[in-house]
Amino acid sequence: MEFDREGREGKTGQTGAGGLYQLTIDTLGQNKELVMKWKVRSVLIMAALVITGCTPTASSVQPPPGEEEAASAEESPTDWPTAIPSEATHTPDPTAAPDPTAAETLAPQPPYVKSNLDQTACYFGPGTEYSIEGALSAEAFVPVLGRDDTTQWVQIGHPTRERIYCWLPITELALQGDLEMAPYVEEPIPFVSIVDVDISPNNKDVECSSLPFTFEVEYSITVTGPTIVQYRRERSQAASSSGSVYFEKAGTKKFTASFAVGSEGTYYYRVVVTNPNSQIGEDTATLKCH
Asked: Is the pTM of this model over 0.85?
């Protein structure tokens, strides 16, 4: 019985010392396993942060409960993995204002012009052979209403007169927008703008014995561009006569005439244009005798 008891006691003693040793080994093994798990998880977390572009801090990553003590026992704060910076990428700001130049490339803008000089002459038609109707200054842009078939001249509204149009040479203009958006406009038809008649003298007092008396007449025709003018001359106590004249460009042509009268009275001289439009010029003179 004593042997058995000592043997059992000896076995118990061996079991106590061996068990404590074995427990220590097992505990260290479990701690190492936890440390390895923590390292793997840390690497995975840091990889995720690199992908999302975040920068980790020591306080942003916490070990799972129960593993903090084991992790701190095996590694120091200086052992944290360092995130590899990713290449900088541009992320559009949805609140940013749109770029107007980008919009222009997508949608052509209507054309506007202003003078490149102090002012640019505005012609009746697309060419210098037409009359000058006004001028465009360099102060502000105005909309283009049309263009000729060569796109060398553009049509605008008259700078100072309503419902009147004139043409500008593109070489003297600053342009904004797309000129191709302006429609093609045919050249205007030149017309007679002024017919002027002047009788000289307008009033005359002569001796009756000196009659007849001759009045001198000067008349002029003004056109806005190249055209052929047909007209008729009329005067008091005489039959009318017809005439025509060709204009190579805008301008005025002058003519002279005369007529004699043999008695007192008031006399007229009239020029009636019939083509390319209707226009009339007239003057009167009075003769007295004593």
From this structure: no
